[in-house]
Write a structure and sequence with these properties.
- It is a single chain.
- It contains 10 helices and 11 strands.
- By secondary structure, it is of the alpha/beta class.
- A 7-stranded mixed beta sheet has the order 5-4-3-6-7-11-10, sandwiched between helices.
- A hairpin with a 6-residue loop joins strand 8 and strand 9.
- It is globular.
- Bound molecules: S-adenosylmethionine.
Length: about 260
């Protein structure tokens, strides 16, 4: 496993420091999400019954969550009968996940590591999922082929992430919300570092996601553009309800590994 700090790519090392430092802020939200029966997605908490993110029948399936953080998505899937592995780059986030796993009496396998190199043989899983996890902070040109490698033919990849449009409209200044102005070029969108922030994010245009997924062996089945609910609330300051009612602040990609 790629856990020797010196061997980790620079963005993974930086994101490890960032997420270890931020983990305390994710304890409360993680506890609330673990306590939910019905999954609720993203910064607006849109219910599963509205978005239909998860496959209908997941019981008995092998699932891996890429960048599980406090592992509430893993918990939702384990409660539906899946065998779940969560891999995360932050030991501090995993400490919360381990405590909540004990408190809720659920069996998850939690691994400290980089999702760009999952310590599993080819074709080990039926579903790979990443909720604002590795899909936002790992290099897509590394983690998408890795997801393809460890998925069985016909297996599914699902990842909710921030929308390309939101990224184009996001001011660099901390705490400022997206406006209706395009603030950066759409072409060659890839690695983004917000000033004064340790973390490194990755964002692709829709065309680049499509080409990468197809080249890696996936067929794209859906891309849900999430609209915030009418009276939605969020703890995040980088997007307002007014914005997210008009434009998608999040997008959920669903792809299937070709059977060949
Ligand atoms: C916004 S959190 C999302 C996770 C979860 N949904 C939550 O809210 O706790 C992002 C997570 O992705 C993890 N992460 C970032 N880069 C990663 C990588 N290369 N491999 C595995 N996990 C990664 C971080 O450590 C962090 O826990």
């Amino acid at each position: 496993m790629m856990n020797d700090e010196a061997e980790l790519p620079e963005h993974v090392r930086r994101n490890r420091v960032h997420w270890d430092a931020l983990a305390a802020e994710y304890v409360g939200p993680g506890e609330r999400a673990w306590a939910r029966n019905e999954p609720a997605w993203g910064k607006w908490g849109v219910p599963e019954s509205k978005l239909h993110v998860l496959p209908e029948d997941i019981a008995g399936k092998d699932v891996i969550e890429f960048g599980c953080g406090t592992a509430y998505v893993s918990a939702w899937l384990a409660r539906r009968g899946a065998r779940v592995v969560g891999i995360d780059n932050s030991a501090a986030q995993l400490a919360t996940a381990r405590r909540l796993q004990r408190e809720h009496g659920l069996e998850l396998t939690l691994i400290h590591g980089n999702a760009e190199h999952a310590p599993y043989p080819d074709a080990s899983f039926d579903l790979a999922i990443s909720e604002f996890g590795a899909c936002l902070y790992a290099d897509p040109y590394r983690w998408v082929p890795e997801a393809a490698r460890i998925l069985r033919p016909g297996g599914e990849l699902i990842f909710p992430t921030n929308s390309a449009l939101l990224t184009l409209c996001q001011p660099e200044e901390d705490g400022l919300a997206a406006s209706d102005r395009l603030l950066r070029p759409a072409f060659e969108m890839y690695r983004i570092e917000w000033p004064g922030d340790m973390c490194v994010e990755f964002h692709l245009s829709h065309g680049d996601w499509l080409r990468l997924l197809r080249r890696s062996g996936f067929e794209v089945e859906d891309m849900i553009e999430v609209q915030a609910p009418e009276a939605g609330t969020t703890r995040y300051t980088y997007v307002t309800l007014q914005w997210a009612r008009q434009w998608p602040s999040e997008e959920i990609w669903k792809a299937r590994r070709r059977r060949q």
